[in-house]
Amino acid sequence: MILLNGKETAQGILRELSASVASAGCRPPGLAVILAGEDPASQIYVRAKERACGEVGIVPVSFTLPAATPQSELLALIRDCNTRQDIDGILLQLPLPLGIEPETCLLAIDPGKDVDGFHPENVGRCSLGLPGFMPCTPAGVLELLRRYQLSPSGKKAVVVGRSNIVGKPLASLLYRQGVDATVTICHSKTQGLARECCEADFLFVAMGRPEIITADMVKEGVVVVDIGISRTADGLRGDVDFASVSLKARAITPVPGGAGPMTIAMLMQNTVQAWKKRMNI
């Protein structure tokens, strides 16, 4: 069984990006990091992303706003970041406080600085196979498989979860030309979920339900990517029962240490990509 070590793989990507930035001989990339509210999980994620910036040589320009910040003030900040020459990418940490519409705020971000890949223009480009910023978690999952030489080409891929951030864009990337998987999307209303999962050569799970996928739901030799993560009384748990499923899997990601670090690595990669385009490197 192959343990798909996202933490180790992500570190390799950060080192590659750091070398690229260091050799450029111009101003470093700048990433606006906007955190609204006091959500503890969001604070942890933002600190991890800022640490990654330091490893790559990206300058984080941090904005921390109280939960009571009006939407109009947040939109004004985004518009200012859109025009600043020292900012190449904009990260708006989700979820946002109640009373602020995430769709409105994400739409306000310049697509050329949308390094999360959430703007509808980039979502459309991803769907059509055009150049643009790919959403970080799906892109990270495919990069992890690529670096372990696990190709889903011609294989049946089952995606469990249909969120706009992970499930839908991941399915879109899996069936695009060059990846060439045959894709089935499942969700909480899918009848016969176990049957669908048992047919998967590659199983991607992103529902946020601890250990919903058990050994009787997978076949021998499956490649499993567990994207979900939940905080339980026993600690952090993925959507897959690792102990039992790993006995049947050809390859599997751990939780934590699988998809999460790859997401941050792809955010850094998108930021460097945006910077290079703006600096004509």
UniProtKB/TrEMBL annotation:
Domain (Tetrahydrofolate dehydrogenase/cyclohydrolase NAD(P)-binding) ranges: 135-278
Keyword flag Oxidoreductase: yes
Keyword set, alphabetical order: Amino-acid biosynthesis, Histidine biosynthesis, Hydrolase, Methionine biosynthesis, Multifunctional enzyme, NADP, One-carbon metabolism, Oxidoreductase, Purine biosynthesis
Catalysed transformations (reactions): (6R)-5,10-methylene-5,6,7,8-tetrahydrofolate + NADP(+) = (6R)-5,10-methenyltetrahydrofolate + NADPH; (6R)-5,10-methenyltetrahydrofolate + H2O = (6R)-10-formyltetrahydrofolate + H(+)
SUPFAM superfamilies on file: Aminoacid dehydrogenase-like, N-terminal domain, NAD(P)-binding Rossmann-fold domains
Pathway: One-carbon metabolism; tetrahydrofolate interconversion
Residues binding NADP(+), per UniProt: G161, R162, S163, I229
Positions of the Tetrahydrofolate dehydrogenase/cyclohydrolase catalytic domain: 4-116
Gene Ontology CC: cytosol
GO molecular function: methenyltetrahydrofolate cyclohydrolase activity; methylenetetrahydrofolate dehydrogenase (NADP+) activity
GO terms, biological process: L-histidine biosynthetic process; methionine biosynthetic process; purine nucleotide biosynthetic process; tetrahydrofolate interconversion
Quaternary structure and partners: Homodimer.
PANTHER family in the record: C-1-TETRAHYDROFOLATE SYNTHASE, CYTOPLASMIC (PTHR48099:SF5), C-1-TETRAHYDROFOLATE SYNTHASE, CYTOPLASMIC-RELATED (PTHR48099)
Sequence similarity: Belongs to the tetrahydrofolate dehydrogenase/cyclohydrolase family.
Job of this protein: Catalyzes the oxidation of 5,10-methylenetetrahydrofolate to 5,10-methenyltetrahydrofolate and then the hydrolysis of 5,10-methenyltetrahydrofolate to 10-formyltetrahydrofolate.
HAMAP family the UniProt entry points to: THF_DHG_CYH
Protein known as: Bifunctional protein FolD
Organism of derivation: Candidatus Desulfovibrio kirbyi
Lineage: Bacteria, Pseudomonadati, Thermodesulfobacteriota, Desulfovibrionia, Desulfovibrionales
Gene name, Swiss-Prot/TrEMBL: folD
